[in-house]
Amino acid sequence: MTALRFAIVGAGRIAARHLEVIREMPEITISGICSRTCVNAEKLAQEFNIPVVAANMEGLVRQTSPDALLLLVSVMSVYPVALEALEFGIPLFIEKPAGLNPDETGKLASRALSGGVPNMVGYNRRFYSVFHDGIGRLQKTGKLLGIAIEGHERIDRVRAAGVHPDEVLSAWLYANATHTVDLLRFFGGEVREIRGYARRAREPLVDSIAAVLEFENGVLGQYGAHWHSAAGWRVALYGERTGIEFAPLESGRWVDADGVKGDIAQSAEDARFKPGFFGQMRAFAALVRSGRLAFPATDLQGAHATMLLAQALARGTSA
Ligand SMILES: NC(=O)c1ccc[n+]([C@@H]2O[C@H](COP(=O)([O-])OP(=O)(O)OC[C@H]3O[C@@H](n4cnc5c(N)ncnc54)[C@H](OP(=O)(O)O)[C@@H]3O)[C@@H](O)[C@H]2O)c1
Fold this sequence. Notes:
Layout: E1 4-9, H1 13-22, E2 28-34, H2 39-48, H3 57-64, E3 68-71, H4 75-85, E4 92-95, H5 102-115, E5 119-122, H6 129-141, E6 144-150, H7 155-161, H8 166-170, H9 172-188, E7 191-199, E8 208-215, E9 220-226, E10 234-239, E11 242-246, E12 252-256, E13 261-264, H10 268-272, H11 277-290, H12 300-315
Parallel strand pairs: 1-2, 1-3, 3-4, 4-5, 6-9
Antiparallel strand pairs: 6-10, 7-8, 8-9, 10-11, 11-12, 12-13
Helix pairs in contact: 5-12, 9-12
The site of NADP nicotinamide-adenine-dinucleotide phosphate has 24 residues, from α1, α2 and α4.
């Protein structure tokens, strides 16, 4: 099988994490890279043996004719860069958030659909090996009954770090909290109804959420988030005769109906690389080869549904 040729737009911290994974995948080669200033693109090109550093995305595509583009640009740039990239008509991997609000993500989703552009959005938690191990374990003893997700964001710490501009901090619900909101859809499918409360004590969109949900398949869910607290992310799955908890999300524990408990270990890939990144890139390669998106991957349409769910949680209702 000939290797797929991917080109990369963006040369920051997350591009390096993706390149560490791709370096171990003989089925993918990187044909070229570009970034806003070229400085970091030159650095990554040296470190990862990338043959072409282009001045911009248009030049990158023209010079390297890639099979697909990986858009790994800063949060504020994802929407304009993705909008431009959709015009090339080649498959896109788009780092989250694919837009800073539901409108932007929806616009990208409809452009991709009308242009027939295969695409995938980088919600990498969907590929955590511990989640898939946990789901398999739970299914052995019966059905999933309930899901509880705590998606606390440490917004004060993020603000103090000074990495993100105000526009991103104001849209943090979409820029980052969608990681845990997306897990509701990953574990439970589509949501039928939400009843909840939300507060905006200090943040413009939301900073506290307490919601109960019913999924279309009848599973019940809870989502809670208190951004000015200090707590971390947590997922609990309640199955018939099995309970599973992920806290932090990278590690799992199960308990059975007799009270017997055990740990869920990460896969070798998730322990070695940024968790989920290996499976995620393998899934994108499969999408590029087949043109078909397979679970657990999500595309712009799925990301749009996640954005709308985040918006509904922030309003405290699905209405
Ligand atoms: N899945 C996850 O868990 C996870 C974790 C962290 C980040 N991310 C996502 O990954 C993306 C990148 O984050 P990061 O931490 O790598 O950011 P970063 O370190 O700031 O790097 C961003 C890169 O994008 C380039 N860039 C910005 N605008 C551009 C444009 N218009 N055209 C070409 N290149 C452009 C920058 O170029 P210069 O180098 O020239 O400035 C830089 O190389 C973000 O969307 C973020 O949400 C995901």
